C-alpha cells in the first residue's frame, strides 16, 4: 500500500506536519453560494439564527441554524444536522432541501432545530477534517478543541430544550479509502486498514438505544428513492455487524460523534453512497430528505 505523502510511517504528526497538510488544502466550492444563499430569508414560524462563526475566518464562515420560533412546550423538538464532514455534500444539500420544501408539513406536530452545515471550511475544501487536521465528528464533547463541535454544543445548550429525535446526515464515499483513512493513519502513526465501501444507503443507530423499528422506517422511506446497502459476506457494513437490513450501531457518546451530543430517544446517522453506479447526486439529496421525512412520519404514526 502506498505511504501517505506527509509524515513518517509509525510516527504521529507534529504541528509542523499538520501545518503541511493544511497548506495542501484549497477552496473548491463556495459555502456562501451553495449553502448560505439557499437558506430562506424568512420562513413562517422560524428564526434564522447565527449561532457562531468559525475562527479561521469569522466573516466567511458564519454558522446558522433554523429554529422554531417560539419553541412550543407542548410539541417535541427535532434536531437535524448536516455537514459535520464538509465533503459529504448530500447531507448539507438534503438539509437545505428539507428546509425549503418539506419542513412546513411537520410544524403542527414538532419544533425544529436544523443546522445544515456544521463545518463550512470542510465544505469549501471538500474535507473530513478542519484546518487543524481534527475530525469534528470525533470531537463532540464539553470544551471541545474543534470549534465546529464546540459552537453547536454551546448553542444547543443555550436553547435549554430536550430533543425527541436527532438525525445526522452523512455520506460514505470512495475517498474514505483513497484519502481520509490513509490520512488518519498517517496523522496518528498507525497502520491503515481500509474498509469495504457499502454500495447503497444505510443508517447508524445508537448502541445503547438502537430503536430498530425507527431505523427500519427510515430504511423503507429511503428505499423508494435509492437502493439499500447489502451486508458483506460476513454480515457486516464498514466492519460492524448488521442489526437489520441496512442498519448498524455505534456507541455515539463514547466515540464523541455528533449523534451522541444530545440525549434524544431516537437517533440515527444516515449514510448515502454518492459514488455508486446506481445513484445520482440528485438521488442522494432525495435520499437524505426521505430519511428525515420517513423518521418524522414514524414518530407521527406512533403518536410521539
From TrEMBL:
One of its GO terms (biological process) is proteolysis. This is Peptidase. Its cofactor is Zn(2+). One of its GO terms (molecular function) is metallocarboxypeptidase activity. Signal peptide: none annotated. Residues 20-304 form the Peptidase M14 domain. Belongs to the peptidase M14 family. Keywords: Hydrolase, Metal-binding, Zinc. The keyword Iron-sulfur does not apply.
Amino acid at each position: 500500500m502506498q505511504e501517505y505523502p506527509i509524515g513518517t510511517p509509525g510516527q504521529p504528526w507534529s504541528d509542523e506536519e499538520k501545518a503541511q497538510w493544511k497548506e495542501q488544502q484549497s477552496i473548491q466550492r463556495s459555502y456562501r453560494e451553495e449553502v448560505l444563499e439557499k437558506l430562506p430569508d424568512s420562513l413562517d414560524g422560524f428564526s434564522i439564527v447565527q449561532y457562531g462563526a468559525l475562527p479561521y475566518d469569522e466573516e466567511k464562515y458564519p454558522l446558522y441554524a433554523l429554529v422554531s420560533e417560539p419553541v412550543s412546550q407542548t410539541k417535541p423538538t427535532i434536531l437535524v444536522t448536516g455537514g459535520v464532514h464538509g465533503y459529504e455534500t448530500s447531507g448539507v444539500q438534503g438539509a437545505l432541501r428539507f428546509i425549503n420544501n418539506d419542513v412546513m408539513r411537520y410544524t403542527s406536530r414538532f419544533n425544529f432545530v436544523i443546522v445544515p452545515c456544521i463545518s463550512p471550511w470542510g465544505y469549501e475544501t471538500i474535507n473530513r477534517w478542519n484546518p487543524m487536521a481534527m475530525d469534528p465528528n470525533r470531537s463532540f464533547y464539553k470544551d471541545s478543541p474543534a470549534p465546529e463541535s464546540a459552537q453547536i454544543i454551546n448553542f444547543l445548550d443555550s436553547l435549554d430544550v430536550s430533543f425527541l429525535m436527532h438525525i445526522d446526515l452523512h455520506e460514505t464515499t470512495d475517498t474514505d479509502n483513497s484519502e481520509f483513512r490513509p490520512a488518519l493513519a498517517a496523522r496518528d502513526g498507525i497502520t491503515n486498514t481500509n474498509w469495504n465501501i457499502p454500495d447503497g444507503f444505510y443508517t447508524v443507530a445508537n448502541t445503547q438505544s438502537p430503536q430498530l423499528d425507527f431505523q427500519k422506517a427510515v430504511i423503507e422511506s429511503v428505499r423508494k428513492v435509492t437502493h439499500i446497502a447489502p451486508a458483506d459476506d460476513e454480515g457486516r457494513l464498514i466492519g460492524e455487524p448488521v442489526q437489520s437490513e441496512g442498519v448498524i450501531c455505534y456507541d455515539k457518546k463514547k466515540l464523541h460523534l455528533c449523534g451522541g451530543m444530545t440525549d434524544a430517544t431516537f437517533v440515527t446517522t444516515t449514510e448515502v453512497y454518492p459514488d455508486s453506479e446506481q445513484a445520482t447526486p440528485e438521488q442522494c439529496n432525495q435520499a437524505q430528505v426521505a430519511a428525515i421525512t420517513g423518521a418524522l412520519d414514524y414518530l407521527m404514526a406512533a403518536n410521539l
